[in-house]
Amino acid sequence: MRGSNVQERLVAIRVFHRDRPSLRLPLISKDARFVIWPGVDAWEANLNYVRMEPGEENVPHVHTLSEDTIFILEGAGTIHDYTNDIQLPFHAGCVVHVPVGVKHAVKANSGVTVVSVGGPAPADVPLLKALKALPADAEPR
């Protein structure tokens, strides 16, 4: 690619902070912060910071084109796999992996706050459009 202007086509490295998210999504929790997502021009990666209070749980949902990976930083709870009718416990240090197309919900049902980072990859653009977090015509640049 010598001679071409590669610099113009690349997005620069950026630094984000969990306390300054560009989107909060109550479908996930009262405190679900979208830090890296298509709204900041990240289409292949996604990173959410989520804090769930005891008793809180996601609205059951499906990622039709994405795998969901969730790293549990603090707490304990259950991931409910509605597609296969199973519930699996997790605790701090665990990584939850949800394959494409599996209806699921994370539950903070162990009496403690659950803090996690992660999210679907690539970003779940159809779901974000359905929730009106992205415009219907949003596409990667």
Strand content: 35-45%
Helix content: under 10%
Query: Are there runs of 5+ residues with pLDDT below 50, and where?
Result: none
Q: How many DSSP H or I helices? A: 2
CATH class: Mainly Beta
Describe the main β-sheet briefly. Answer: 6 strands, antiparallel
Q: What is the H/E order? A: HEEEEEEEEEH
Q: Say what the CATH topology is.
A: Jelly Rolls
List keywords for this structure.
single chain, 141 residues, mainly beta, Jelly Rolls, 35% strand
In short:
By secondary structure, this protein is mainly β.
Describe the structure.
A hairpin with a 6-residue loop joins strand 1 and strand 2. The chain has one domain (6-130): Jelly Rolls. The mean pLDDT is 92. With 141 residues, the protein is mainly beta. The radius of gyration is 16 Å and the shape is globular. The strands form 2 sheets. A 6-stranded antiparallel sheet has the order 1-2-3-9-4-7, with no helix packed on it. Strands 6-5-8 form a 3-stranded antiparallel sheet, with no helix packed on it. The chain has 2 helices and 9 strands; from the N terminus they run αβββββββββα. It starts with 5 loop residues before the first helix and ends in an 11-residue tail after the last helix. It has helices at residues 6-9, 125-130; strands at 23-24, 31-36, 47-52, 67-74, 76-81, 86-91, 95-98, 104-107, 114-121.
